[in-house]
Amino acid sequence: MIPLQAAAIAFVGAGGLAVVLARDLVRQALLNGFFGLGLVVLFLVFQAPDVALSALAVGGAAAPLVLALAIAKVSRREGRRDG
Amino acid sequence: MSRRARTALFLAGGAGLVALLAWGFAGLPAFGDYHGVYGHLLNQRSLGQTHAMNTVVAVTFDYRGFDTLGEEFILFASVLGVALLLREARSRPPEEVDVREPFDPVRATGTIATPLFFLLGLFVIAHGNLTPGGGFQGGVVTAVAIVLIGLAADRSVFHRLAPKPFADLLEGIGVGAYAAIGVGGVAAGAAFLQSFDERGKIGLLTSGGTIPLLNWATGIEVTAAVVLIASEFFEELEER
């Protein structure tokens, strides 16, 4: 295993842990984006550029999009209930 | 159960999991150590048979083109399901939204990224038969470029650029074109989805027979599908 591959695995491991440990929803979504970016690098250094491209689009943009919209909707509903 | 007992139970379970995983990973074949017959066969034959330099795409759009048709239908049906459910649940049309100006750096980054992503997506689709990527990956990248407009800059611009009836139509055209190309094989006297086009010179954007055509049909379908899902989600957000 080359150092880059080991670094990518370590980054993904730390990223996954950070996502689980984050308590704030927005922060969690943001960390999830970094985790997705780590996965892209991981796939790339393990010579799977096809998968890296898919992960780039899904993990870097599509998943954060769905999360961001869901969080916006949920927080708006909660704000209305409080106010 | 007390906190102490829970922690003890977790530690015991976690240790067991770690041991099992370590045991399993230790028995994995080395990286790049592959003994399958099918992969080696494809690596040797696919370029000569299909003239597509990207063997993965040669598999998805030629050898296993029928499987990909199934995947196209899965995507089509799931987007249809999302649209049907959400549109049914929305009783009235969304009111005018208070368009808040997004945070400026976000807006700037989104505006710069949009044309780059769009170009990259088209590039990935067009070079599907030559380099890693293809209709699925390129389609998602292209769609993300369009969605970024709504996310980072202005949602009304997004709705105007990608009106839903247009996305609906494009999605249908994409999946329909894939099936129609398959029927083209039958019309040419071959099997369904068998390549009927000239294989062409290796290395060209058009090489690979019907592979580039199927690739573009997929790219259009995936682009429209992702844009449509984003569109529905945006409208969910706008509804109060």
Care to describe what's here?
The complex is a heterodimer of chains A (about 80) and B (about 240). Chain A has about 80 residues and is an all-alpha fold. Chain A is built from three helices and no strands. Chain A has helices spanning about 5-20, 25-45, 50-80. In chain A, α1 (about 5-20) packs antiparallel against α2 (about 25-45) and α2 (about 25-45) packs antiparallel against α3 (about 50-80). In chain A, about 25% of the residues are buried. Chain B has about 240 residues and is mainly α. Chain B has one domain (about 35-240). In chain B, about 70% of the residues lie in helices and about 0% in strands. Chain B is built from nine helices and no strands. Chain B has helices at about 5-25, 35-50, 55-65, 65-90, 105-125, 135-155, 155-160, 165-185, 210-240. In chain B, α5 (about 105-125) packs antiparallel against α6 (about 135-155), α6 crosses α7 and α8 (about 165-185) runs antiparallel to α9. The interface of A and B includes residues 53 and 54 of A.
What is shown here, in short?
With 83 residues, chain A is mainly α. In chain A, 89% of the residues lie in helices and 0% in strands.
Any chance you could write out the topology, listing elements then pairs?
The complex is a heterodimer of chains A (about 80) and B (about 240).
Chain A: H1 3-21, H2 25-45, H3 49-82
Helix pairs in contact in A: 1-2, 2-3
Chain B: H1 3-26, H2 37-50, H3 55-63, H4 65-89, H5 104-126, H6 135-153, H7 155-161, H8 164-187, H9 211-238
Helix pairs in contact in B: 2-3, 3-4, 4-8, 4-9, 5-6, 6-7, 6-9, 8-9
Features:
heterodimer, A: 83 residues, mainly alpha, B: 240 residues, 9 helices, 72% helix
User: Which percent range fits the helix content of chain A?
Assistant: over 70%
This entry's quaternary arrangement is heterodimer
Number of domains of chain A: 1
Beta-strand content estimate of chain B? under 5%
Average predicted local confidence, pLDDT of chain B: 88
Largest sheet of chain A: none
Ends of chain B: how far apart?
43 Å
Low-confidence stretches of chain A: none
In one word, what is the shape of chain A?
Answer: elongated
> Unreliable segments of chain B (pLDDT under 50, ≥5 consecutive)?
none
Largest sheet features of chain B: none
Note the run of SSEs of chain A as H and E: HHH
